[in-house]
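Weekend entry, working from home. Most of the wet-lab plans are on hold until the incubator is repaired, so I used the time to fold the two sequences that have been sitting in the queue since the last round of cloning. Logging both here for the record. First:
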Amino acid sequence: MAVSKDTARDAVTDPDVPQNNGPAEPAVPQRAGGQTPQEPEHSRPDSRKARWGTRWATVVAVLQRLLYVVITAAVGWAVYFFLLARLARGPEQVWVFLPVWLIAAYAFLPRVHKILSSLYLPNYFIGRARTGDGVLGDPVNLAVVGPADELRTAMLTAGWIEADPVTPSTAWRTLSATLLGRSYPQSPVSALYVFGNKQDMAFQREIDGNPRKRHHVRFWKCPEGWMLPGGFAVDWVGAGTYDKSVGLSLFTFQITHKIADGTDEERDFIIGTLQTANAVESVHVIRHFSSGYHHRNGGGDSIRTDGHLPIIDLRPHGQRDSAPAL
């Protein structure tokens, strides 16, 4: 393990951890006996203009939801029409499975998940990335202090390769490389979302000269002034996992990579490569950043984590020696 549990310290009590305890709690106003406190703003009567604005915003939101539901229902009807109605005519209609799978996997089921996840998942940071359908994805298991150019240089120096963006061309190249056993070191990774944004950069290490198996990590830039729960200021959060094979998503049946459940081991491997490249000033661990848990990611793959979050403080590029990359 790159970050030894024997030496990892609780970041809450570590004076060297880059942290910000946040603003002091506001003092409770002291009032003379018998004085009635002023109504808080949220309980005061709204003005006529404010009420109309709120109602109009509600109407627009409801119409948007209804339109999304209608489109989803239409896609579901198309699945029924192509599959059940045609299969009833005889086994020679088995060819309809392909269009039905495409419609269900890439249109109907993602829309259903989008609707449901918007209802039951909070729209704020909870230590998990999310898929484009809103489903919980990989655990956020890294944090980094340092600018973008230093992070990119550190990863490249440590032997990682930056992933290409997803385009029809790169998607086809990934598919053909996977099926034919060819190398594609810059193979793109799918989009996952933190802070409502997809990853700002992603890096990988191909295994056995094929994108079917690979180490990979995504990084998201933290919003200005944002801090981790507990008041720790960082510049980036990351999610590192290992792709062990290619298969179908458990939730949408889309073609996707299947990840290994040992996300902690992958997290520590990433840190180890950076330390070997002498790109790390220090690593401090927020122990029990979240409770350790077993769950599934956005593709339905099992994941497990101890809940610890290492904070990597990058060494400025000019202070690194010539340690070889892995």
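Second, folded right after the first finished:
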Amino acid sequence: MRGKKSRPVRGMNAALADGEAGVGEILPARRPRALWQLGAAVAAAAACTAATAVTYHAIANRSISFSGEVTPAHTYYLNFPATGSVQTLLVRPGDHVHAGEVLATQQSSVAAANLQAARAAVAADTALIAEDEHPATDPNTAAQDQLALAKAQSDASSAQGALSLVQTDTASQITAQTTAISSDQTTLTDDETRYTQSCGSSPTPPTTPPTTPPAAPPPHPSPSPVPTMTPAGPIMTPLTAVKGPAAVVAATPDPALCQNLASQIDRDAANLAQAKAQLSGLQSNTQSQVQQDQAALSQSQSVVQAAQAQIDAQGSALTPATLAQARSQLATAQAQVAADALALQQTTILAPADGVVADTAGAAGDLVGPDGVHAYSGPAAQSGTLVDQQPGVQLFVPTPAAGSGTADENPGTSALITVYSSPLEVTAQLPESQMTTVHEGRTTSLGLTSDGRTLTGRISQILLDPARVPGATYYDVTITIDNPPSDVLAGMSVNVTLN
């Protein structure tokens, strides 16, 4: 009898059906891992953790560089407080100077004469007060009073001489400056005529607006009044058509020639404006000096009157009011001595600190005042010229002026002497994100971009006044250079790295 086909046995009994493992077969347990395998896994995990920590530390502490610039400890711009001619200029750019060293001198004859007259007035007032407080009873009293009167008259004569000297000096300077203005005006007119003749079909060249001459000093009782010379009339008039042979113009003007003539007219206008500005400053300074000398003369004449009154009052008792008036005159004379001594001292420029001369903007004979030397701003500052229209290297640095900034409105001024004081430093701007790690005394590496050298330095100052730009805030940091080489100059670029 054929047996029945057996059904496949599943589950726990599958292994018992025909001796083969089935679905529900129970396999033997796996062999446990060896200890060395567990140790290797732990070591690999530890190495990965250490590498991650080292990488994070390196990223967090990597060196960050910033741009910086070599700067002097301080920059001094030196000028004479009063307007006058430079007598000597004793330094040149690159000279090393020491504090107190004489750098330049100004003509001081007028200041010296004023000081002498003021000292004489003090001596006369002192003698008069002594005589008033202790009247002499000896027979020589009259003779002494006469001597005091003679001395007071001599002092008044000295004051008159000082006034005459400044009048003569300023008159010659005004005459010379007026002559220079006339010469500049003639040159400008000639160049405009050439432009009209050669470029009649081109646009009319720019002209300078008329200027009003500065006011002259007020009249005074001195026998030698200061002449006031001002430019006559407007500077320029509109160009008119040239008649006769000069009216013949080339059919096709040369563009290069016309451009050069237009540039020359701009320079002529700038020179004329500069000369007029110098004349205005000279006349203003003259008026102030004349008033000062007139005050000194009036004071000396008051001393003469007091001496004469002393002679007239011999034998009369002096009242307290008379003594008080004499003391007031003495105090005024002493104040004038102090002012004149300061004015004489300020005719000499001394080096304010040890350092190096960075620039000089004048020479002996130049007219220098509190604003410096009137400087020609060059063709780069003139609108409409070829230099202004094309980019590139410019030999003249334009000086910005108030208003529209044109050369005829303000020719610009430059300091007579510029001094960089020692030692050199590095100034860098750091973003606010780095300020938490910056402190005074932190060492830095300074890489010179000029030759690749690396210097060392330390942060010496942190300025807390922020510099804000859209989206960022920076702080200025000053770094002292350790043993700076002699060939490192102010203005060099530096890459600053915080160590």
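Plan for Monday: verify the second prediction. The chain has seven helices and 15 strands.
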